[in-house]
Amino acid sequence: LSGPVAVASDPATDLVWVVGEFSHSVSVVACDPAAPSAHSVTVASFSVGEGARGIVLAPDGRTAYVDVGFDHQVAELRLPDGASSVASGDAIERAEPTRVGRRKVEDRYLSPLAQQGRRMFNDGTNTHLTPFGVVTCGSCHPSAGDDAMAWRIETSDETTREIARKVRRTPTAWQVDPAVKPLHWDGEFTSSDDLTLTTIQRLLGGDGLLVDARAISAYMAEVAAPPAAPTGAASASKAVVAGRKAFVDAGCATCHTDPTGTDGKPHDVLSPSSAPDAGLDAAITPSLTAVRGRAPYGHDGRAPDLAALLDQHGDGSGGTIRLSPEERAAVIAYLGSR
Ligand code: HEC
Ligand code: HEC
Q1: Average pLDDT, the chain
Q2: CA-CA distance, 301 to 156, in Å (whole number)?
Q3: What is the Cα 32 distance to its own chain's centre?
Q4: Which atom of ligand 2 is the closest one to the Cα of 298?
Q5: Which ligand lies nearest the alpha carbon of 144?
Q6: CB distance 97 to 74 below 8 Å
Q7: How far, in Å, are 298, 314, 330 from residue 282 at the CA level?
Q8: pLDDT tens, residue by residue, 152-176
Q9: What pLDDT shows up at residue 92?
Q10: Is it true that the peptide bond before 226 is cis, omega within 30 degrees of 0?
Q11: pLDDT at 224 over 90
Q12: pLDDT number for residue 79
């Protein structure tokens, strides 16, 4: 099971149904609340198709309905008779869904190539992508977003056998356009295809040979960012307007340019990182799209919230950006609206 994304349970049977998004499967696990979890037994396992995300149980506790997103269908799963009494060590049959309902959708949101890329991005079963079947792009970029983590990434140079290490906050992988901003915090990639193949080979351990990097790039270019925050009460939108003004007056917009909030250039604006392997002299200005939901902030994930980030944010010429408490609150309200 890879990419557990949804669960359903029935207290009457102690069975927990777990949807594995990247393994395209549903596992039914018997969990005795009194026994240690090591004793849990998978009593049934279903192949359900790609992009499985949600599950509900019927009142009988033995039938489940699964939303299989990328296949645009709902699968009905029925527990085989006697499945709940399977003991550990027994062979587990993988069953197909008993019935599927399909809904017809047009290619309205993503082109056919990007839909293909979305499947690869979230596929833990393709050995050219991920030989161990555990980690895939979607593991760290759920729905092409981010996992709110800073990762310590190691790569070895085959010729010198030296190992390079870096700690980097996962950025989002939606609306990826290297023409707006080169990719990675240090801007090392100017092509999505290059980034994709290198990531498959260095990070996931796959060969990437039969994987179409163009499809993954198309998905990352097309998939929408989360929508801007709804404008709430009038007082809130007043604060947003004041915040926008303070944002421009303080010089933020010279680097965080409209419309996405990045000039695509490297700047040295944070003090040296306190985390080992997290140093970076100059980071490419990050986009501010949906920045409200992207804590922790900074290339090393040092700031738990926007206030903490702004307290450490330099002006790019060796000085610190100074905002009065009122301006800082207004700027945060403005960023919260993006
Ligand atoms: C272990 C978690 C992890 C996995 C798995 C992963 N990424 Fe990332 N991704 C990261 C981190 C961390 C960075 C930042 C790296 C850096 O800046 O040096 C990143 C950066 C990126 C970026 C650059 C975004 C930007 O704005 O600069 C893209 C695009 C991306 N990843 C796509 C992918 C694709 C495609 C895959 C699968 C082939 C993938 N990632 C797998 C963690 C991950
Ligand atoms: C000199 C260019 C420059 C100016 C001016 C500037 N920024 Fe930044 N900003 C950056 C860079 C570069 C980073 C990434 C720094 C890092 O992570 O090492 C960044 C990071 C951020 C982040 C974190 C985003 C994330 O995804 O982690 C926010 C929020 C932000 N800036 C807001 C502001 C605000 C508000 C102002 C004005 C008060 C401002 N910036 C002024 C270049 C600039």
Answers
A1: 90
A2: 24
A3: 32
A4: 17
A5: 1
A6: no
A7: 12, 12, 27
A8: 998 887 788 888 899 999 999 999 9
A9: 65
A10: no
A11: yes
A12: 87
Candidates 111, 136, 118, 107; CA nearest to 50 is: 118
148: which 2 tokens?
Answer: 């709110």
**Amino acid occupying residue 285:** T
Scanning the structure block, which residue is given the tokens 């009038």? 234
Model confidence at 14, pLDDT cuts 50, 70, 90, reads confident
CB-count burial class (<10 Å; 0-12, 13-18, 19+) for 140: middle
pLDDT class of 68 with cuts at 50, 70, 90:
very high
Q: Using a 6 Å cutoff on CB, does residue 203 contact ligand 1?
A: yes
Instruction: Measure Cα distances from 237 to 242, 333, 337 in Å.
Output: 9, 9, 9
Give, for ligand 1, the residue of 170, 190, 220, 288 to mutate: max count of ligand atoms closer than 8 Å to Cβ.
Answer: 170
Mean pLDDT of 317-335: 91
Give the atom of ligand 1 at the shortest distance from the alpha carbon of 199: 38
Nearest to 67 by CA among 19, 115, 17: 19
CA 290–ligand 2 middle distance (angstroms): 14
Q: How far is 23 from 124, CA to CA, in rounded Å? A: 5
CB of 250 sitting under 6 A from ligand 2: yes
Distance CA 282, CA 265 (A): 9
Mutate which of 270, 281, 285 for ligand 2? The one with the most ligand atoms within 8 Å of its CB, which is 285
Q: Which ligand is nearest to the CA of 151?
A: 1
Query: Residue 87 above 80 pLDDT?
Result: no
User: Which pLDDT value is given to residue 249?
Assistant: 94
Q: Are 95 and 76 in contact (CB under 8 A)?
A: no
Instruction: For tokens 């099971």, name the residue.
Output: 1
CA distance linking residue 222 with residue 5, whole number of Å: 23
The torsion angle over the Cα atoms of residues 321, 323, 327 and 331, rounded to 10 degrees, is 20
pLDDT band at 278 (very low <50, low <70, confident <90, very high): very high
What whole-number distance in Å separates Cα of residue 169 and Cα of residue 110? Answer: 27
Q: What integer pLDDT is reported at residue 85 of this predicted model?
A: 65
